[in-house]
C-alpha cells in the first residue's frame, strides 16, 4: 500500500487529472466513431459495423499476440438454453464476410481458439444449448484494411437469455451498475468498458469487494479512473514502441481502437504464474492478493508492473525475442510505465535494482569465475543488460528498435531459428547505436554458443557499416544506474546509427539471369517433352529413379504463378499441397517422402559426401552470402562450390511456400529466397532451407502451395545413358 503522503498526492491527482467528464453522443450502432454503444430493446437488438480484424492489425504491428475484435452484445446465455438470432444486412461488406457469435470470455471461459463460435447467415439462426453458461459476444470483422459492412442482430427468444451487468464509461452510472450486479445471478459476470481500449470482465463479487464504494481501504473507488489507468498503461507502452498516429508512415500508427484488450479473472488458480497473457487478453489468478492488483486503482497506480508486464507480452516482437528472453523483452515498455506513474506520485526516479546488486553484477562481469553465457542467465540478470543500455543510450533505443522490427515486415513474425533471433537483436543494437558493442556482448556472454555463421555476420556488419572503434567500446559494460566510468561523458549518449530499416538481402532484379548463371543441366540423362503444353524438361537418373532437373511449370486450373516469375522460367509454378491431383505428366508422379530419401542417399553415396555437403549440393542459383545476385538468401545453411553443383545437377531453387489467403508468404522461412518446398503426399511438403543443412518434412494447410518435382522409375535403371547419347523422349499423355 502507498504511504499517507503519497496516498494524499494520489487523491489530488485523481481529482485534478483523471476525473474526466466523458461525453458520449447517443448513437444507434456499435462502434460508430470507434465507440461502443449497444442498441438494447426487448428483444435485444445490436447494430454492428464491421471492424478491422485484430489479426490484420497484429500483422502490421509485428506483435506476438493480438488484442480482441469482439463486440459486446450485453447478454448472457445460461446453461442449457438455446439462442435464436436474426440477422439483417444493412450494408453489404465488400469482402463478403459474415458476422459470428462467440460464446465465452477469452481466458475466463477458454482461450480464443477454442471458444464456441457460430457463423451467422442472413435471416434466422439457431444456436444449440451449451453445457455451461456463457457471455455472448459478436465478431464481425474484415481481414482487409477497409471494413465496410453493417448488420442488425436481433436476439429473438427473450426468455432464453438475460442481460449481464454492463458499465459503459460515460453512459452508465455507478449506482445503476451496482443495481445490475445485485439483480444478476451470481454466476453471471459483469463487464466494464471505456469503449476504446479495454474490456474488463470480472465476477460481481470481485468488483464490489475491490473497486466500488463500501470498503474505504481501497478508496478512491472509481471505475472511470481504473479504466483510465488501463488506457494509460497501453498508451505509454505504445509510445515506448515508437507508435504515433502523427507518424507519416502508417505502419507506425497506434493499434486500431476497433481492437480492445480483455482483462479478466481466472476461474482457477494460475499457480506460480499469478498473471498471464495470450491472444486477446491478460488474466489474473483467482486469489484476493492478485485480483486487487487488477481492480484496485490504488494498487494498479502504485505498482503497475504486473499488468504492464502482461500487456507487454501482447506487444512483444518475436523476431528480436530469443527463446530464453520470453519474460525479459516484455519489460522494455514496462519500465516506461513505472517511470511515468512514479513521477506522478512524487516518488524517486525508478531504478529497478539497488546499488549493491549492480556492484555485484559489475564484479561478475569484470572477473567471471567461468565463461559467461548470457542466454542461460536468470531473467533478472538478462534484463540488467537492457537496463544498462537504457542508461547509456536512453529510452529511444527501444523505440527505434521496435520501429525497425515493424519495418522488417510481417515475415519477421515467425523467425523460428533461435540463433537468427539472437543475431537480429544484437545486430540491430549495433546498427541503431552506431557503436561496436562486440566487447560488451562478450563480457555479458551474448556471443557464447551463437552459431559461428552469425558471429561472423556480426563482424561483417561492423565492416559493412564502417563502424569505427571508440574509446567507449571497452567501458560500456561497466555502466550502471549509479556510476559512469571514464572516459564516458554525461549520459545518455545520442544514437548515431540507423533510424529506419533497409533490407540488404534482396532477390536479384533478374532472377532468370541468376538461374542461367548458377544452374547447370549438362549432366542430364535426357529430355522429356510434356505433350500437354510442349514444354521440355531435362531429367537425370539418380539410382533407379529419373528426376526432373527443374520444377514443374505446367499451368492447370490449380497452379499459381510465382509473383516475380509469371512465366515460370525460373521457379516453375506453385501447386496446392492439399490437392490429391497428380499434376505431373503421364508416366511421372509427385516425388514422395521415400523418393526424397532415396535421392539423398544416392547423392551422398555416389559423390562421397557427408550429410551437410549432400543437402548443399542439391541447390543452385547462387548464395547471397557469397554473391550479390544469388537466388538463395543469406543464412547459415551450406552452399556447395559450383563444380559440385554442376556434377550433381539437381538444381534446387528457393521458391518458398505460397499462402493464397494473403497472396504472399506467411513466414520469413517460407518466403521466396529462404527455402525450397516440394509437394509430396497430401498435405505434406519436403523442406530445404537457407538456415540449415538438414531437410525436414511437415504438413501444411489447404491455403498453401509449393513447387513440384516429378519422378519415375528409371527406364534406364540398369543402363544409365550418358549425356552424349541421350535422346528427347516424348510420352503421349493418353498412353
Structure overview:
InterPro entries: Fib_succ_major (IPR011871), M60-like_N (IPR035423), Pep_M60_3 (IPR042279), Peptidase_M60_dom (IPR031161), TCAF (IPR051244). Residues 68-394 form the Peptidase M60 domain. This is Peptidase M60 domain-containing protein. This protein has 735 residues and is α+β, with helices and mostly antiparallel strands. It folds into 3 domains: 44-288, Jelly Rolls, CATH 2.60.120; 316-478; 511-719, no CATH class. Helices cover 28% and strands 18% of the residues. It is built from 19 helices and 30 strands. The protein has a 6-stranded mixed sheet. It has a 6-stranded mixed sheet with strand order 23-29-20-19-18-30. A hairpin with a 2-residue loop joins strand 16 and strand 17. Helix 5 (223-240) crosses helix 8 (305-315), helix 5 (223-240) packs across helix 9 and helix 13 runs parallel beside helix 15 (452-464).
The CATH class of the largest domain? Mainly Beta
Tell me the number of strands: 30
Number of helices: 19
Straight-line N-to-C gap: 85 Å
Structural class: alpha+beta
Protein name: Peptidase M60 domain-containing protein
Domain Peptidase M60: 68-394
Outline:
Residues 68-394 form the Peptidase M60 domain. This protein is α+β, with helices and mostly antiparallel strands and 735 residues long.
Amino acid at each position: 500500500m502507498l504511504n499517507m503522503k503519497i496516498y494524499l498526492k494520489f487523491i489530488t491527482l485523481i481529482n485534478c487529472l483523471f476525473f474526466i467528464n466523458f461525453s458520449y453522443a447517443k448513437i444507434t450502432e456499435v462502434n460508430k466513431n470507434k465507440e461502443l454503444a449497444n442498441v438494447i430493446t426487448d428483444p435485444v437488438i445490436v447494430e454492428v459495423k464491421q471492424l478491422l480484424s485484430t489479426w490484420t492489425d497484429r500483422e502490421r504491428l509485428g506483435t506476438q499476440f493480438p488484442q480482441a475484435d469482439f463486440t459486446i452484445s450485453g447478454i448472457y446465455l445460461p446453461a442449457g438454453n438455446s439462442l435464436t438470432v436474426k440477422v439483417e444486412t444493412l450494408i453489404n461488406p465488400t469482402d463478403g464476410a459474415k458476422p459470428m457469435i462467440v460464446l465465452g470470455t477469452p481466458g475466463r471461459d477458454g482461450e480464443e481458439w477454442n471458444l464456441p463460435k457460430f457463423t451467422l447467415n442472413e435471416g434466422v439462426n439457431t444456436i444449440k444449448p451449451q453445457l455451461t453458461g456463457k457471455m455472448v459476444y459478436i465478431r464481425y470483422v474484415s481481414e482487409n484494411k477497409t471494413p465496410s459492412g453493417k448488420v442488425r442482430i436481433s436476439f429473438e427468444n427473450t426468455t432464453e437469455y438475460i442481460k449481464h451487468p454492463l458499465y459503459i464509461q460515460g453512459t452508465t452510472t455507478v449506482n445503476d451498475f451496482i443495481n445490475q450486479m445485485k439483480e444478476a445471478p451470481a454466476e453471471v459476470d459483469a463487464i466494464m468498458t471505456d469503449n476504446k481500449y479495454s474490456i474488463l470482465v470480472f465476477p460481481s463479487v470481485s468488483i464490489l469487494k475491490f473497486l466500488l464504494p463500501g470498503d474505504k481501504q481501497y478508496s478512491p473507488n472509481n471505475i472511470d479512473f481504473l479504466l483510465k489507468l488501463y488506457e494509460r498503461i497501453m498508451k505509454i507502452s505504445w509510445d515506448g514502441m515508437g507508435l504515433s498516429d502523427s507518424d507519416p508512415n502508417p505502419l507506425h500508427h497506434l493499434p486500431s481502437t476497433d481492437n480492445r484488450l480483455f482483462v479478466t479473472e481466472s476461474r482457477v488458480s494460475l499457480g506460480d504464474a499469478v498473471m498471464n497473457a495470450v491472444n486477446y487478453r491478460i488474466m489474473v489468478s483467482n486469489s484476493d492478493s492478485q485480483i486487487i492488483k487488477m481492480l484496485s486503482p490504488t494498487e494498479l497506480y502504485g505498482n503497475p508492473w504486473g499488468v504492464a508486464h502482461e500487456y507487454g507480452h501482447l506487444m512483444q516482437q518475436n523476431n528480436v525475442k530469443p527463446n530464453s528472453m520470453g519474460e525479459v523483452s516484455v519489460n522494455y515498455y514496462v519500465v516506461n510505465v513505472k517511470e511515468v506513474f512514479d513521477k506522478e506520485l512524487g516518488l524517486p526516479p525508478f531504478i529497478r535494482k539497488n546499488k549493491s546488486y549492480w556492484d555485484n553484477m559489475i564484479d561478475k562481469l569484470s572477473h567471471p569465475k567461468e565463461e559467461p553465457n548470457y542466454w542461460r542467465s536468470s531473467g533478472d540478470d538478462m534484463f540488467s543488460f537492457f537496463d544498462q543500455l537504457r542508461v547509456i543510450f536512453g529510452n529511444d533505443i527501444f523505440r527505434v528498435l521496435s520501429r525497425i522490427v515493424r519495418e522488417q515486415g510481417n515475415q519477421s513474425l515467425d523467425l523460428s531459428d533461435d540463433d537468427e533471433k539472437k543475431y537480429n537483436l544484437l545486430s540491430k543494437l549495433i546498427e541503431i547505436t552506431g557503436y561496436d558493442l562486440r566487447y560488451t556482448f562478450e563480457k555479458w556472454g551474448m556471443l557464447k554458443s551463437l552459431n559461428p555463421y552469425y558471429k561472423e555476420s556480426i563482424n561483417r556488419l561492423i565492416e559493412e557499416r564502417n563502424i569505427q572503434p571508440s574509446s567507449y567500446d571497452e567501458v560500456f559494460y561497466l555502466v550502471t544506474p549509479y556510476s559512469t566510468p571514464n572516459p564516458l561523458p554525461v549520459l545518455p549518449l545520442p544514437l548515431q546509427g540507423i533510424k529506419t530499416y533497409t533490407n540488404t538481402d534482396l532477390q536479384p532484379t533478374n532472377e532468370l539471369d541468376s538461374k542461367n548463371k548458377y544452374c547447370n543441366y549438362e549432366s542430364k540423362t535426357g529430355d522429356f517433352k510434356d505433350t500437354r503444353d510442349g514444354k521440355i524438361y531435362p531429367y537425370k537418373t539418380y539410382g533407379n529413379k529419373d528426376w526432373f532437373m527443374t520444377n514443374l511449370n505446367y499451368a492447370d486450373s490449380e497452379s499459381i504463378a510465382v509473383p516475380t516469375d509469371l512465366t515460370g522460367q525460373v521457379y516453375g509454378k506453385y501447386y496446392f499441397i492439399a490437392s490429391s491431383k497428380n499434376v505431373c505428366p503421364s508416366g511421372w508422379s509427385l516425388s514422395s517422402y521415400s523418393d526424397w530419401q532415396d535421392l539423398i542417399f544416392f547423392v551422398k553415396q555416389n559423390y562421397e559426401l557427408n550429410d551437410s555437403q549432400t543437402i548443399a549440393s542439391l541447390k543452385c542459383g547462387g548464395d547471397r552470402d557469397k554473391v550479390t545476385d544469388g537466388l538463395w538468401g543469406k543464412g547459415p545453411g551450406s552452399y556447395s562450390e559450383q563444380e559440385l553443383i554442376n556434377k550433381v545437377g539437381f538444381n534446387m531453387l528457393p521458391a518458398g511456400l505460397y499462402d493464397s489467403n494473403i497472396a504472399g508468404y506467411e513466414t520469413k522461412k517460407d518466403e521466396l529466397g529462404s527455402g525450397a518446398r516440394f509437394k509430396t503426399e497430401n498435405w505434406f511438403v519436403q523442406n530445404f532451407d537457407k538456415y540449415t543443412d538438414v531437410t525436414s518434412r511437415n504438413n501444411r494447410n489447404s491455403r498453401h502451395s509449393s513447387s513440384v518435382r516429378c519422378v519415375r522409375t528409371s527406364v534406364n535403371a540398369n543402363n544409365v545413358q550418358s549425356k552424349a547419347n541421350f535422346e528427347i523422349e516424348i510420352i503421349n499423355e493418353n498412353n
